[in-house]
C-alpha cells in the first residue's frame, strides 16, 4: 500500500504549490467577484452578479478591450518577424549565432526596464526625435506617447520588440527538431528554400505556430507592464488589465476588479477553445 502511494509523495510538493498559489487565489477571486469589498473591511457585502453586469454594461470597462486590438494585430507582425528570422537562421548563414543572441536578448530583459528604456526613447526631444532630426526628418517628430492617435502604436511596437525573441526561440527549436535528412532529400529533388519552407518547415512546426497564436491572443488581452510603466494608461492606452489594477488598488473596488479578472479568464479560455477547434492539434507526418 505504501509502495503504491509513493508516486504521490513525489507529486505532493508540486501539487501543494500549484493549489496554494494558483487554484486557491482563483477561487478567492471568484468569491470576491460576487461581493462589494474594499480590500480592508473584515466584512464583504454580497451583490450577486452586479459586478459582472457593470463590467458588460459600463462603457468605461468594456471599451478598454478595443485597446487590445493594437497588441493583437502587432502580435501577428511579431510572429511573422520571428518566423522569418527563425527560418533564415536555421540554414547556414554567417554570424547566425550572433543574430540569434541579438533577437533573443530583448526577451531576457525585465519588462519594467524595457518600459523605462522606451519611455526615454519616445519622450519629447528624446532619442527617437534626436535621431529623426539627425537624418533630416525632424518635421515628422510627434508626441509618440502623448498623442492618443499614435500612442498605442508606439506601445504595440515596444511589445513587438520585446516578445519577438520568445516566438523566435520557439520556432527555431521546432525547425531544428526536423531531421536533416529530409532537407537533404529535398535538395536532391531540386527543392529551393521556398519549397523547403512550404512543404517541410511549415507543416513540421504547425503545432508551434498554433501555440504562438494562443499566446498572441492571451498576451494581447493581458498586456500590463508596458502601458502601465510608459503611460500609466493615459491618452487612451489603458488596457483591460491596467483598468482592473486601477479599479482594485486605486479605487478600492476589489469585487469589481475580481469580476473583471474572471471575465478576462473566461474570454481567454473561450478564444483558446475556438482556436483549437479551428486548428486542431493533429499528428504531423513529413513524407
From TrEMBL:
Transmembrane intervals: 7-26, 69-91, 103-122, 153-175, 208-230, 250-274
Subcellular location: Cell membrane
Keyword Cell membrane recorded: yes
Pfam families: BPD_transp_1
Membrane topology according to the record: Multi-pass membrane protein
Keywords: Cell membrane, Membrane, Transmembrane, Transmembrane helix, Transport
Domain annotation ABC transmembrane type-1: ranges: 64-275
Keyword Membrane attached: yes
Major localization class: membrane
Family: Belongs to the binding-protein-dependent transport system permease family.
Protein name: ABC transporter permease
Lineage: Bacteria, Bacillati, Actinomycetota, Actinomycetes, Micromonosporales
Amino acid at each position: 500500500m505504501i509502495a503504491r502511494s509513493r508516486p504521490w509523495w513525489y507529486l505532493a510538493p508540486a501539487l501543494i504549490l500549484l493549489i496554494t498559489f494558483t487554484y486557491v487565489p482563483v477561487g478567492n477571486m471568484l468569491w470576491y467577484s460576487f461581493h462589494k469589498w474594499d480590500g480592508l473591511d473584515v466584512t464583504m457585502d454580497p451583490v450577486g452578479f452586479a459586478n459582472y453586469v457593470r463590467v458588460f454594461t459600463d462603457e468605461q470597462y468594456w471599451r478598454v478591450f478595443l485597446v487590445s486590438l493594437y497588441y493583437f494585430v502587432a502580435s501577428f507582425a511579431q510572429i511573422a518577424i520571428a518566423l522569418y528570422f527563425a527560418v533564415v537562421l536555421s540554414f547556414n548563414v554567417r554570424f547566425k549565432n550572433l543574430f540569434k543572441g541579438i533577437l533573443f536578448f530583448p526577451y531576457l530583459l525585465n519588462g519594467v526596464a524595457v518600459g523605462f528604456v522606451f519611455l526615454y526613447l519616445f519622450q519629447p526631444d528624446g532619442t527617437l526625435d534626436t535621431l529623426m532630426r539627425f537624418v533630416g526628418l525632424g518635421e515628422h517628430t510627434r508626441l509618440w506617447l502623448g498623442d492618443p492617435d499614435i500612442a498605442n502604436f508606439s506601445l504595440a511596437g515596444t511589445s513587438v520588440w520585446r516578445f519577438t525573441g520568445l516566438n523566435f526561440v520557439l520556432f527555431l527549436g521546432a525547425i531544428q527538431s526536423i531531421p536533416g535528412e529530409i532537407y537533404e532529400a529535398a535538395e536532391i529533388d531540386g527543392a529551393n528554400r521556398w519549397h523547403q519552407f512550404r512543404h517541410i518547415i511549415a507543416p513540421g512546426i504547425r503545432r508551434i505556430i498554433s501555440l504562438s497564436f494562443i499566446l498572441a491572443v492571451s498576451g494581447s488581452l493581458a498586456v500590463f507592464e508596458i502601458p502601465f510603466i510608459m503611460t500609466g494608461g493615459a491618452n487612451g492606452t489603458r488596457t483591460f488589465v491596467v483598468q482592473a489594477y486601477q479599479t482594485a488598488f486605486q479605487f478600492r473596488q476589489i469585487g469589481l476588479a475580481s469580476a473583471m479578472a474572471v471575465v478576462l479568464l473566461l474570454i481567454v479560455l473561450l478564444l483558446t477553445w475556438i482556436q483549437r477547434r479551428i486548428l486542431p492539434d493533429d499528428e504531423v507526418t513529413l513524407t
